[in-house]
Design brief:
Order of helices and strands: EEHHEHEHHEEH
Helix content: 25-40%
Number of helices: 6
Protein name: Uracil-DNA glycosylase family protein
Shape: globular
Distance between the termini: 27 Å
Number of domains: 1
Domain Uracil-DNA glycosylase-like: 22-165
Strand order of the largest sheet: 1-3-2-4-6-5
Low-confidence stretches: 195-201
Number of strands: 6
Structural class: alpha/beta
GO molecular function: 4 iron, 4 sulfur cluster binding; deaminated base DNA N-glycosylase activity; metal ion binding
Largest sheet: 6 strands, mixed
Keywords: 4Fe-4S, DNA damage, DNA repair, Hydrolase, Iron, Iron-sulfur, Metal-binding
Mean pLDDT: 89
Radius of gyration: 15 Å
CATH architecture: 3-Layer(aba) Sandwich
């Protein structure tokens, strides 16, 4: 079922106290990238996830290479088949506390349900811990370590989860591995991932 909205930024009308980098992109996307927060991955000023930081520039360059972004970098990227969200969208002075992450998880939950993508890309360890806990039964079997599992495919409950190492830590090989994984998924019948049994990919 397609979402009937042309809105790119905050298409579902979320309201986060104090300002936020709201979910952004194609509301009918099959590929959903989950980052950490504006404090870690940028967007406190622009209101757009994965902007204003080196992490954002590196991730956007990959999105451009695989055909998801019209530009290599923009503060208002033109995205297709891709949606960007944060585990904690709210703007804070420093990194959010554990309690603040827990409080704002509901915004991510709502966006995940609304977008209903096929593939979740968990950028950073906190996003991976969330994806493993909420969308697989593997948190007790797989450590939420994106450096160790970068660009692997982990099959979960209704989603395929792809861990993504912190972009600021990428080597050339890390970047190439992520591009290769996305390209392979685009070349496959990735829509069959919905509802698959939980296995380690």
């Amino acid at each position: 079922m397609e979402n009937v909205t042309d809105e790119t930024s905050n298409p579902f009308g979320m309201s986060v106290p104090g300002g936020a980098a709201y979910g952004y992109g194609d509301a009918n996307a099959d590929f959903h990238f989950i980052g950490d927060s504006p404090a870690r991955h940028g967007g406190a000023t622009t209101g757009v996830p994965f902007t204003e930081t080196e992490a954002g520039r590196r991730l956007q360059s990959v999105l451009h290479e695989v055909g998801f972004a019209a530009e290599a970098y923009s503060d208002e990227p033109r995205l297709s088949n891709t949606f960007l969200s944060y585990a904690h969208p709210g703007v804070t002075e420093g990194e959010p506390t554990d309690a603040e992450y827990a409080d704002q998880e509901r915004f991510l939950d709502a966006e995940l349900r609304a977008i209903n993508a096929h593939i979740l890309f968990a950028v950073g360890d906190r996003a991976l811990a969330y994806a493993l806990d909420q969308h697989t039964s593997l948190l007790d079997k797989i450590a939420p370590d994106t450096a160790a599992r970068h660009a692997e495919q982990v099959r979960g409950r209704g989603f395929l989860v792809v861990p993504v190492r912190e972009p600021e830590e990428w080597t050339d090989a890390d970047r190439a591995a992520l591009v290769s994984t996305i390209t392979d998924l685009l070349d496959s019948d990735y829509r069959q991932t919905k509802g698959v049994a939980t296995t380690i990919g």
